[in-house]
Design goal:
Blueprint lengths: L2 H11 L2 H4 L5 E3 L24 H14 L3 E4 L6 E3 L8 E4 L9 E7 L4 E7 L4 E7 L5
Parallel strand pairs: 1-2, 2-4
Antiparallel strand pairs: 3-4, 5-6, 6-7
Helix pairs in contact: 1-3
Length: 136
């Protein structure tokens, strides 16, 4: 994404209704973070598992804005990447190679916590995460 669009996003993220929101969740098709050995999407070999270029461009903005959760698809397999010393937000990647193996992600929030659950389309639990509000 062009630098001008990132700057606009950053300005918008500072609006009171976003800056003061108790939870900041970002939705994105292609994950910003990959696993060791994953294709970073900036080579001519194979298929991209994540986008290293977008990570370099977006991660500083997400970190500064206080993002807590990044929800992605693209890889056709479910996984959850817990926060690390490099990244304070969790990245959950959903999806499936076919409709029958897709992932459903749900969120329920109140002033005390955000609960995110992931299940298969058949209802098999894949995970549950509890996120505290950013402020208060």
């Amino acid at each position: 994404m062009a630098p001008a669009r990132r700057r606009r996003w950053r300005r918008r993220s500072q609006r009171p209704e976003i800056a003061d929101a108790p939870y900041l969740i970002v939705f994105r098709q292609i994950p910003l973070w990959g696993l060791p050995g994953d294709n970073p999407g900036d080579t001519l070999d194979g298929y991209a598992s994540y986008c290293r270029q977008a990570k370099k461009a977006w991660h500083p903005h997400l970190a500064k804005a206080g993002a807590q959760l990044l929800l992605c698809g693209h890889t056709h397999r479910f996984r959850c990447d817990e926060p690390t010393h490099e990244r304070a937000y969790r990245q959950i990647v959903g999806g499936g190679p076919s409709l029958s193996s897709g992932t459903i992600m749900r969120g329920k929030a109140d002033d005390k916590q955000l609960i995110v659950t992931a299940t298969s389309l058949a209802g098999k639990p894949l995970g549950e995460w509890r996120i505290s509000p950013r402020r208060g």
